[in-house]
């Protein structure tokens, strides 16, 4: 019986124990882990070891990429590492990809993005190219999850949930196909679906037309906050300051820390040794209309919103 083949991509020496634990987890599910250090890659005499890895990856069903703070071995075809090129190959071949980035490196990457174009010396990553690659992933990877991890248990817990979701989705689709017992039934179902889709599109257009110009349309402040806080994977709408404050608290920020007479609202969120600060100028809200969000240009919003990441004052200087 054929089993799913899962390619595990990461630097080797620094993540050796992580790779072993993930491999054991994959085996426990009855899947086949494919790893170059476990003999899972078929090498040939006519191609390089690096290209053999890329070729083997193209035959796998799932790719698990683990990015730590070490660059690893540079690829012969680019300035990135072999691990990074493996991810690029997976994206090119439209594989199901699960990407895990060490939490400290991921948080530091936000500071890198804020200072892109200037001088930036990473404290956690051993090579600036790691941050360049993560920034590229965040811009190009849209349909595959990117998660952070502190321990191997974080990776395994996420994969267990994701694989279970894939299986449940397969069962749902299989059951749906089973209901159409003949080609005629399937065609009839397809025509009914097309009709429902047309009705849904018409209803949606009428609804959006009715609400055009209200808070349900895109608000530049919300759009900028989604980008700034790296939560572009889902949408949210808020109408006023109270709703926005409640949302920020739900994702881990402490409530407004500014004084009553200040002209801004201050929120902070802790990430291990780092603290994230978000400052919102009161000019974003309409004080005469129940503190609802104003309709502002993107340029004006950027002037009124400030984000920064700092080391916690209670921690000592990092040791090399």
Describe the structure.
By secondary structure, the chain is α/β, with parallel strands linked by helices. The protein is about 45% helix and about 15% strand. The protein has ten helices and ten strands. The strands form three sheets. Strands 2-1-3-4-5 form a five-stranded parallel beta sheet, with helices on both faces. It has a three-stranded antiparallel beta sheet with strand order 6-7-10. The chain starts with a strand and ends in a 9-residue tail after the last strand.
**Sheet having the most strands:** 5 strands, parallel
For the largest beta sheet, what order do the strands appear in spatially?
Answer: 2-1-3-4-5
Distance between the termini: 50 Å
Strand elements, count: 10
Count, helices: 10
Helix fraction bin: 40-55%
Overall structural class, as computed from helix and strand content, comes to alpha/beta
Rg of Cα set: 24 Å
Order of helices and strands: EHEHEHEHHEHHHHEEEEHE
Uncertain ranges: 210-217
DSSP strand (E) fraction? 15-25%
Average pLDDT taken over every residue: 81
Overall, the morphology is globular
Q: Any key phrases for this structure?
A:
globular; five-stranded parallel beta sheet; three-stranded antiparallel beta sheet; 10 strands; 320 residues; alpha/beta
Précis, in short:
The chain has 320 residues and is of the alpha/beta class. It is globular and about 70 Å long.
């Amino acid at each position: 019986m054929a089993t799913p083949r899962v390619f595990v991509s990461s630097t080797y020496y620094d993540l050796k124990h992580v790779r072993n634990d993930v491999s054991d987890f994959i085996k426990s599910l009855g899947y086949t882990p494919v790893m170059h250090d476990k003999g899972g890659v078929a090498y040939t005499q006519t191609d390089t070891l690096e290209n053999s890895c890329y070729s083997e990856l193209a035959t796998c069903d799932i790719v698990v990429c683990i990015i730590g703070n070490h660059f690893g071995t540079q690829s012969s075809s680019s300035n990135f590492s072999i691990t990074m090129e493996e991810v690029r190959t997976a994206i090119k071949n439209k594989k199901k990809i699960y990407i895990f980035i060490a939490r400290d490196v991921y948080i530091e990457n936000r500071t890198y993005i804020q200072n892109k174009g200037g001088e930036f010396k990473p404290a956690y990553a051993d090579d600036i190219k790691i941050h360049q690659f993560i920034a590229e992933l965040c811009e190009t990877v849209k349909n595959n999850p990117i998660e952070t991890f502190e321990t191997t248990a974080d990776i395994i817990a996420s994969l267990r949930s994701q694989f279970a979701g894939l299986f449940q989705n397969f069962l749902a689709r299989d059951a749906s196909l089973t209901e159409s017992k003949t080609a005629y039934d399937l065609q009839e179902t397809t025509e009914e679906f097309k009709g429902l889709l047309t009705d849904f599109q018409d209803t949606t257009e009428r609804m959006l037309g009715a609400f055009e110009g209200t808070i349900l349309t895109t608000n530049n402040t919300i759009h900028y906050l989604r980008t700034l806080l790296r939560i572009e994977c889902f949408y949210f709408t808020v109408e006023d300051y109270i709703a926005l404050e409640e949302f920020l608290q739900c994702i881990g920020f402490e409530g407004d820390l500014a004084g009553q007479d200040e002209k801004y609202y201050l929120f902070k969120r802790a990430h291990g040794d780092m603290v994230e600060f978000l400052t919102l100028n009161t000019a974003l809200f309409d004080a005469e209309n129940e503190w609802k969000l104003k309709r502002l240009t993107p340029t004006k919003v950027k002037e009124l919103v400030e984000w920064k990441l700092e080391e916690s004052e209670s921690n000592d200087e990092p040791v090399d």
